[in-house]
Amino acid sequence: DLFGVSMVVPLLNLHIRSLGASPTVAGIIGSLYGVMQLFSSTFVGCWSDIVGRRYSLLACILLSALGYLLLGTSTTVFLFAISRVPVGIFKHTLSISKALLSDLVSERDRPLVIGHFNAASSVGFILGPVIGGYFTELEGGFYKSSFVCASIFILNAGLVWMLPWREENTSSSEHAQETNSNKVTENFSAKANHDLRFQAEAAGSVASDSPFRSSWIQTAVMLKRIKGIACSDLWDIFLVRFLMSVAILLYYSNFGLALEERFGVKPKLTGYLISYSSTLGALSGFLLEPITRLYQHNTYTVLLHSSILTCTLILLYTSALNIWTVILSSTFLAFSTAVGRTCITDLELRLGGSQARGALLGVGQSVTSVGRIVAPLLSGIAQEFSPCGPPSLGVGLALAAILIMNVNKRKYCGTGNVKLKTQ
């Protein structure tokens, strides 16, 4: 998935400019894609809880493939904009895949498996731009890259269709086995169980009803699920995700420009440093097993310590006096951010219960999308004061996230009393 996407994404701005679009138009189209992702991720994630992972994953893969096929035929700015619509709405294959993994593995193994998943995703994103760069040297290289990307998505759809599936709704049995000492999980699970009963009662009539009524029932269940998440006490964990994502985005926002201004580093060396960090981030996913064993599978503590390390490393980068300090901070930051991303996803799923994993992951993705919208604005304002302004602001946001985690320590640690699926 990400191998195909990363062949195309770095070339998008170059291609739309070659079609005659102004920088403003190119920026607007790019922003619209982000806005579509923001609003669709929660609905698509919730939809996957209702109709099943296989059906929703197939639909998202095929509609994304359609978007990249249209991109491969875009000879005008209008066609380019149209091609981004299906991708903007349905390119949520990664979050649905994470929800599927959460369905298949025990809570104890979930951080490890999601870490491996993130590592595979990172490897795809490292290799893709190299192949995309090769295609750009050929005549019609962008169109070839788009068609190859669409072909990869179609291949993925074939794999999803062919692989053996045993999709069961185990939420009720898991809920019966779990003893939730955490109030958040109890409240959310109660709402989710109500939705499951509503869905089960409606399922008998869907087969004989019209497609319109079936879609209406699915929409009603989706809205009830989303309302349940909105009215739950999960705001703090989503706020932690938002603050940490913005802090990291601020660190990278003017990374190349700041290195050039502070240390006279050439863009080529900056590119090598970013690739080095990305490679380390991919390898970090395979270190989660010994880390979780060391922490006795306490996700909260791992997340807290990784956040403290991230905050410290951004502060070290901000106050660096030479390029070697920057390399040192980048080395360990790639590790801490990879571990933090995995742990915060696992903590969201632990707090929210097992009935609405897709919806929870969708909301988390929406929160990150808001961060991607806010971070460039904050970065621009902070750069008015200093090249070190954005990462300095990131340190403050990371400290706020750490404070929130400490204040809500009892809530997070309460999830440790929940019995595991395998028990």
Automatic annotation (TrEMBL):
Full protein name: MFSD9 protein
Transmembrane segments: 20-43, 55-71, 113-135, 141-163, 234-252, 272-288, 323-344
Membrane topology: Multi-pass membrane protein
Gene3D superfamilies, per database record: MFS general substrate transporter like domains (1.20.1250.20)
Predominant place of localization: membrane
Domain (Major facilitator superfamily (MFS) profile) ranges: 1-412
Keyword Transport (UniProt): yes
InterPro entries given in the database record: MFS, MFS_dom, MFS_trans_sf, Sugar_transporter_CS, Tet-R_TetA/multi-R_MdtG-like
Subcellular location: Membrane
GO cellular component, one term: membrane
Alphabetical UniProt keywords: Membrane, Transmembrane, Transmembrane helix, Transport
Any one GO MF annotation of this record: transmembrane transporter activity
Annotated SUPFAM superfamilies: MFS general substrate transporter
Family: Belongs to the major facilitator superfamily.
